[in-house]
Every structure is written in structure tokens, then in C-alpha cells.
Specification:
The complex is a heterodimer of chains A (288) and B (140). With 288 residues, chain A is an all-alpha fold. In chain A, strands 1-2 form a two-stranded antiparallel sheet. In chain A, helix 2 runs antiparallel to helix 5 and helix 11 runs antiparallel to helix 12. Chain A is globular and about 70 Å long. Chain B is of the alpha+beta class. Chain B has two domains: 44 residues, no CATH class; 86 residues, no CATH class. Helix content of chain B is 36%, strand content 19%. Chain B is built from four helices and five strands. In chain B, strands 1, 2, 3, 4 and 5 form a five-stranded antiparallel beta sheet that branches. The chains are: A mainly alpha (288), B alpha+beta (140). Chains A and B meet through helix 1, helix 5, helix 7 and helix 9 of A and helix 1, strand 1 and strand 4 of B.
Chain lengths: 288, 140
């Protein structure tokens, strides 16, 4: 039993594969970090010198990470900024906004795991520069932190479901309260059948979250769970102020796909130059 | 393509164990053991929003029967002019009583009005219904 566990751990630690997937994840997470924090960390929003330096480091590193410029350094700096913001500014100094939330924690963890991988080897300006110099590195590298990204998302669903496994949520009353708070009044939400719908939504949410926590690990279940999860997150995003939680969770579904499938999918999507129709001429602006 | 060296694999194994344990232990510590160290993360979505929200329904006695009275309609609330939360929610008993007294003024001097009220709990759901005395009694 212990021997098999160690062998499984070793195989995850030695896991290497195509880096296209982490290129996509890097791009998306960089954009989400900017969406979450950029506006609040511009110079005019932070007048103390420390805040300005922190904001500049966060915004610049996330932008570079997104574009794939000096990617390893940018990813590392961005991860450090997020850890500093969450644990030092948010928890230690008690300035919880905007750092200490479930969705910002998931974002921080994802960027930390990305920073442990060679995120610039695919779909990056770094690669483009290296290719122009004839030295593009192989799009291959260690992927073991992907396992942690998967585990993080599964745990979010699992513990979210555990927290909802109670009379309040399963009877629909918790959702009735939340919808009344945002959309209704002390009379509830004035739609026929609404209370019954909340019972179904309450039970359905808990079943789906347990399903996502365990089912995302299995490819046949993923075929159904990923679309269901995306619809679920879209519904939450449209209904309640959840910030970047929905989009971060949906992007993390990509971490569950086999890297080889992602690389093959990108090759299929991009095609080759030979895909051009024979009658196509040169592009109008394509002079040498 | 050569694989990573033994030392690198061992380092990664150690990192996987430490980070994995951190991720697994955090929610267990916060949600099961009720720990309060916020460096460890809990995943209670909306555990702190819309808590202690109460449902309040007003009822008027007409011919020996209690019939519903909608404050939403009587106060002229609408989704085009969506009222502020403090106006549309009556989460404290005193707020419900005050809103009832205002309704009494609109319903006429002889109206007999009461409320049925229940409040939500994050884990236990709705409480039992609580029924008020005549809210218009003080006006007669």
C-alpha cells in the first residue's frame, strides 16, 4: 500500500509532457489577475510608496506573464505578489480587501503552481523571440504542479459541497434567502414556483459539486461534468457577485485535460500554412 | 528527452507532499475543527452573505379570515425602481413592526393586521413561524 503510494507520487513528480497547456493556463491566469487586481493597484489608487511598488510589481508581472515576456521571472514575481498580498497584507495585517477571499486564494494558488512550471516554452513572446534566433526550446517540460492545480479545484468543490450538506441548503431555504437578499424583499422572490425551484437548485448544486470533486479525475465523466460545471458557474456569475471565481474555475478545467490532447488540439486549431487555398495570394500588408 | 534526476524527483515529491498536505489540511482545520487561523483556507461560499435574512408576510383579518397583504404592492415597490436593501428587507422584529404600523395607516382605521415572520439560519434553515399581535391596535 505504502509502496504503491510512493510509486504513484514518484510518477507524478517525474511527470513531463507538452507545455502548450500551461501556456494557455498562464495566459488565462495572467488575464484574470489583471481583471481582479489591476484597477485597484494603479498608482492613483495607491498613494503610499509601498503600495505603489507592490501594485506596479503585480500589474507589470501579470501583464508580462499574460504575454509570455520574461515568463519564468514574471510568473515568479506575480506568484510572490499574490502570496504577499493574501498572507501578509490580507491575513497578517488584517487588510482583507481585496485579497482574502476564496476566489483570490484559488487564483493565488494557481499562479504559484504555474510559476513552478516552464510556462514560457509555448504560446509566448519568449518562444517567438527564441524561434527567430533559431533557438526555440522544446515544448516539453515538467508538469507535476498540474496535479496540484487539479487537486486544488477538486478540494474547492468538495469542501464547498461539505459546507452545503445541511438542512438549510438542501431544503432550498439558503438559496431563497440569498435570492431574496439580492433580488427580492422580505416577501421572497415574487415568481410562481420559485421556492420549489430553489429546492431543486439546492439539491442539484450539492450533487454537482460532489460530482465535480470526484468525477473531474475521470475522462468519461469529464465529458458531462465540464459542460455542466461551466453552466453552473455561468449561473452563479450572473446571479451573485462572485468576482473572478467563475472564470478561474472554468479555466482550471483545462488542467484536467491530458497535456498531449491539448497540444494536439492546438495543432488542429492552428493548422499549417499548407491549409491555405491554392488561389490565395499574398496578404495585402505582407511585404518583406 | 532525458528525464529529471533522482534528486530533482525527490525534491518534487517533497513539495507535492507539503503543498498537498497544506491544501488538504486547511479546509479540514477551518470547517471541521472550527480553527480560526486564516492563513489556512476554508471554502464556505456565501457563508457570510444574506445571513439572518427574514421572511415577513403581512395578513389582514377580513370577515374572520386572514388574507395576505403585500407590502411590496402597497408601498409601490417595483423592479424598475428597485428599493434599497434597508427598505425591502425586514430582518429585525422592530423593522417588521414599524413597516406594519405604516401599512395600518394605508389600510384604514379599523384594519386588523399581523405579520408571520421566520428567519433563516445558515445551517438549520428557516425557523418556526412567529405570529405578531395586531399591529394596528395602537392606532385605535
Amino acid at each position: 500500500m505504502i509502496g504503491r503510494s510512493v510509486a504513484a507520487l514518484r510518477s507524478v513528480a517525474a511527470w513531463e509532457g507538452p507545455t502548450h497547456q500551461i501556456g494557455l493556463l498562464r495566459f488565462a491566469m495572467g488575464a484574470i489577475v489583471l481583471a481582479e487586481y489591476a484597477q485597484r493597484h494603479t498608482a492613483f489608487a495607491n498613494h503610499d510608496p509601498g503600495g505603489m511598488v507592490f501594485g506596479l510589481a503585480l500589474v507589470v508581472s501579470a501583464s508580462l506573464m499574460c504575454a509570455g515576456v520574461f515568463t519564468r521571472v514574471a510568473s515568479g514575481v506575480c506568484a510572490l505578489c499574490l502570496v504577499y498580498g493574501y498572507h501578509w497584507v490580507g491575513v497578517h495585517l488584517g487588510q482583507k480587501e481585496p485579497f482574502v477571499h476564496a476566489h483570490t486564494y484559488i487564483l493565488m494558488a494557481s499562479v504559484v503552481f504555474l510559476a513552478l512550471m516552464p510556462t514560457g516554452r509555448s504560446l509566448s513572446v519568449d518562444r517567438w523571440w527564441a524561434a527567430r534566433g533559431g533557438e526555440a526550446p522544446a515544448q516539453w517540460g515538467p508538469l507535476w504542479p498540474l496535479a496540484l492545480m487539479r487537486l486544488q479545484l477538486a478540494l474547492v468543490y468538495f469542501w464547498g459541497a461539505v459546507d452545503k450538506t445541511n438542512v438549510a441548503f438542501l431544503s432550498g431555504s439558503r438559496l431563497q434567502q440569498m435570492y431574496a437578499y439580492y433580488y427580492g424583499s422580505h416577501e421572497g422572490v415574487r415568481l410562481p414556483g420559485f421556492d420549489e425551484l430553489m429546492v431543486v437548485a439546492g439539491i442539484g448544486t450539492v450533487i454537482l459539486e460532489y460530482g465535480l470533486a470526484f468525477g473531474l479525475w475521470f475522462a468519461p465523466a469529464r465529458r458531462w461534468l465540464v459542460p455542466a460545471g461551466i453552466l453552473f458557474h455561468a449561473a452563479i456569475y450572473l446571479s451573485f457577485p462572485v468576482g473572478t471565481f467563475s472564470v478561474t474555475s472554468c479555466v482550471l478545467y483545462l488542467a484536467f485535460v491530458r497535456p498531449e490532447e491539448v497540444a494536439a488540439g492546438i495543432r488542429r486549431l492552428v493548422g499549417r500554412e499548407g491549409d491555405r487555398p491554392a488561389e490565395a495570394g499574398d496578404s495585402p500588408g505582407g511585404g518583406g | 528527452m532525458t528525464g529529471p534526476g533522482e534528486g530533482v524527483v525527490r525534491l518534487r515529491m517533497a513539495l507535492l507532499c507539503v503543498l498537498g498536505a497544506w491544501m488538504l489540511f486547511g479546509p479540514f482545520y477551518r470547517q471541521i475543527l472550527d480553527g480560526e487561523n486564516q492563513h489556512l483556507r476554508e471554502f464556505r461560499m456565501y457563508g457570510t452573505r444574506a445571513v439572518r435574512t427574514c421572511q415577513v408576510f403581512f395578513e389582514q383579518e377580513r370577515g374572520g379570515e386572514w388574507t395576505p397583504v403585500s407590502r411590496w404592492e402597497l408601498e409601490g415597490f417595483s423592479y424598475h425602481r428597485f428599493p434599497a436593501r434597508g427598505q425591502r428587507m425586514l430582518d429585525k422584529r422592530r423593522d417588521a413592526e414599524r413597516a406594519g404600523e405604516r401599512l395600518c395607516g394605508q389600510l384604514g382605521r379599523d384594519a386588523v393586521l399581523r405579520y408571520r415572520r421566520r428567519c433563516g439560519h445558515v445551517r438549520r434553515g428557516w425557523s418556526e413561524w412567529e405570529i405578531s399581535d395586531d399591529l394596528c391596535g395602537g392606532r385605535r
